[in-house]
Amino acid sequence: MRDAPHIPVLLAEVVDALAPAPGERLVDATFGAGGYSRELLERGAEVAAFDRDPDAIEGGQILVGESDGRLILIEAPFSAMDSELDARDLAPVDGVVMDIGVSSMQLDQAERGFSFQGDGPLDMRMSQAGESAADFLNNADEGAIADVLYQYGEEPRSRRVARAIVEARPLTTTGQLATVVRKALGHKAHDKKDPATRTFQAIRIHVNRELDELVEGLVAAERVLKPGGRLAVVTFHSLEDRLVKRFFKQRSGSMPAGSRHLPPAARGADPSFEDVGRAVRAGEAEVAANPRARSATLRVARRTSAAPWVGEA
Ligand SMILES: C[S@@+](CC[C@H](N)C(=O)[O-])C[C@H]1O[C@@H](n2cnc3c(N)ncnc32)[C@H](O)[C@@H]1O
Predict the structure, then answer these.
(1) Residue 101 Cα, ligand 1 centroid: separation in angstroms?
(2) Of all atoms in ligand 1, which is nearest to the CA of residue 234?
(3) Per-residue confidence of the chain (313 residues) as pLDDT tens digits?
(4) Helix axis angle, 11-18 relative to 35-42, nearest 10°?
(5) CA geometry: angle at 287 spanning 284 and 292, to 5°?
(6) Residues 247, 272: contact at Cβ < 8 Å?
(7) In this structure, which of 81, 224, 238, 297 has its CB flanked by the most CB atoms within 10 Å?
(8) Using CA of residue 87, residue 92, residue 95, residue 100, what is the dihedral sign?
């Protein structure tokens, strides 16, 4: 596969939660480098895996070849997993796993434009299609940029950063953007966290519609899971984890107030999930071996036999 292999996060816990058995059909909604899929195949399951990044699908062809026809790779957003599986007659399924966010391969390749560690074009598109980070930053008005930085990056000085971006346009590289943000916020060499981190996260989430995708993916998983089917979701920051937590709360019948990103509660609907587990985090040994695991949270629930809830995000 790629030169910088992606180390799967919380692999043992995910496999444990999915409890794959020979002959079962499972969905890996975020194939990446295939870390989860490989393990599920080894347990005898059939896997339908999604990724919206054409590079991930290309890299996965080796594993397809080794899988005795038990792995199928689908280049599509996981929000469409229900229609994509229906079209191939692959639904319903026994389990779904979602490992949200970017892969190490995406982050490490400067030309994908996700990272300010190396200089590359301001791209950040997982699917390599549609509006790029440069398109957004060079065309959106200052208020819209500030809103994105505030909502998706939790950047407290979003207006100041947005103003600096607009003044520096046109921006074409990740290096330029990082410099503009550091200058706007002040950056000392010994700062623990680069001040550009929040801005890069925010723009990535916006460009890839990551929070909307997550909610639509959860709803699609609810539609394709068999009664008793398992759903396991790994997220990497609190904005995402909050959505997963609330989705499981809502669908298991103890719904707090609605969220902009969650489908409106369908009053009177029977719980579609049960056995909602507590949040699982990586242990010290895993974090020491793979620092990316530090911020990972796994949540798991089991599908009931109730109909999927209605209501769109
Ligand atoms: C964290 S990586 C997954 C790593 C994988 N579990 C492994 O062990 O190799 C996330 C992957 O999901 C893909 N992805 C993220 N959001 C997606 C979406 N909405 N639809 C389809 N693929 C998505 C990304 O392109 C990336 O390859």
Answers:
(1) 6
(2) 1
(3) 344 578 999 999 999 999 999 999 999 999 999 999 999 999 999 999 999 999 999 999 999 999 999 999 999 999 999 999 999 999 999 999 999 989 999 988 999 999 988 899 999 999 999 999 999 999 999 999 999 999 999 999 999 999 999 999 999 999 999 999 999 999 777 778 899 999 999 999 999 999 999 999 999 999 999 999 999 999 999 999 999 999 999 999 887 545 556 666 555 689 999 999 999 999 999 999 999 999 999 999 999 999 999 864 3
(4) 50
(5) 160
(6) no
(7) 81
(8) positive
Ligand 1 in contact with 240 (CB < 6 A)?
A: no
d(CA 60, CA 55) in angstroms, rounded, equals 9
Whether the upstream peptide bond of residue 92 has omega within 30° of 0, thus cis, is yes
- Which of 263, 212, 2 lies closest to 111, judged by CA? 2
Phi, psi of 274 (to 5 degrees): -145, 180
Ligand 1: distance of its center to the CA of 237 in Å? 15
202-237 burial, b for 16+ CB within 10 Å, e for fewer? bbbbbbbebbebbbbbbbbbbbbbeeebbbbbbbbb
